[in-house]
DNA sequence: GATCCATGTCAACCGTTGTTGACTAGGGCG
DNA sequence: CGCCCTAGTCAACAACGGTTGACATGGATC
């Protein structure tokens, strides 16, 4: 059940806990993941998990920050970013692997986790992404974030069937088209008004 | 605190519980909503709530079915549907009003609620919507459902700021454009292949 | 050797939750 | 009156959750 126990035991315990937390939170929701589950996965006592991180919420925040690294996807032109984002949705998560998107979407509805996630999504995703987009940039970035979260939830959490087939790439193409549209579509009235003052 | 108590008291108790459940589930997540909260809102004992509906999950299912009526939005041409969907996202929910979308998105991550919601989304939304779309219809409908869920969550649950301003209609226009794109965009290779055989 | 600190364990607390069984009030009915 | 059924209450259970404080251990330091 334990993979490569030698290596894992060699890691400082705190890192093992963090990794266990990432794994648990990416497989189950914030509510469904107990500190005892994480402790058992890391091979330590519950009390120690708590003492290491102060609270469940802080542990979640650290696990999130350590695992989800959107900056890696947000490099290059807006078009290459769009492709990277679309592809990320299909990062297959095995029992051992951790899909960073899952850590986000599985806990979206818990108030404690939501505080952490809002901060993270705004500062580490929407903000950076917006720098690559046309005005209204923050709005476009937020809509794209919502789209990705929605696909992630319906696909990875709810397992809605039409979204599960990666065959033929139809889904990926559809998603890519949608993201691209949101990036570039005009939001002003059809007639090309003066592109000067837009408040965002 | 109680609005129009005369009318509410006149309703059969079971309906009052159902209404209280809808209200609670649209304001808080499945996990955060206790049967005692619903009972208190309806003015009855917890035990009675449970005996009326058998379990929390069944109560949730009934409250969902009674409140969320996507069929009302899915009439007319695909374009008018797109507009109705985009508008539904901005149905303002006051403390008294219930936004049907919230009941869905607030509980997406709880496993018990997820069972109920998957069934509901597939059968009452994706299915009907797909009948109005081009092939691959189910895939397009599912992507649109994911998009709406994503906006609903980031806007109504996480309160992501750029999504909150309804001013100017920029957001609604962006959303409408995205939905329309998903409805009509081609999913085959760019060069206009023979539009004949597409498998979905 | 004695002291100190980090690392960790053990047992328990306290609140909450869905759920259950025993009980009560009241109205229809024979 | 006596009976029964529905509607509804009350108290409690059993489990679980995050959290806490007291205690063990082992190496480093003086």
Automatic annotation (TrEMBL), chains A, B:
Residues 11-71 form the HTH tetR-type domain. Signal peptide: none annotated. It comes from the Bacteria. InterPro entries: Homeodomain-like_sf, HTH-type_TetR-like_transc_reg, HTH_TetR, Tet_transcr_reg_TetR-rel_C_sf, TetR_C_16. Residues 34-53 bind DNA. This is Transcriptional regulator, TetR family. The keyword DNA-binding applies. GO terms for molecular function: DNA-binding transcription factor activity; transcription cis-regulatory region binding. Keywords: DNA-binding, Transcription, Transcription regulation.
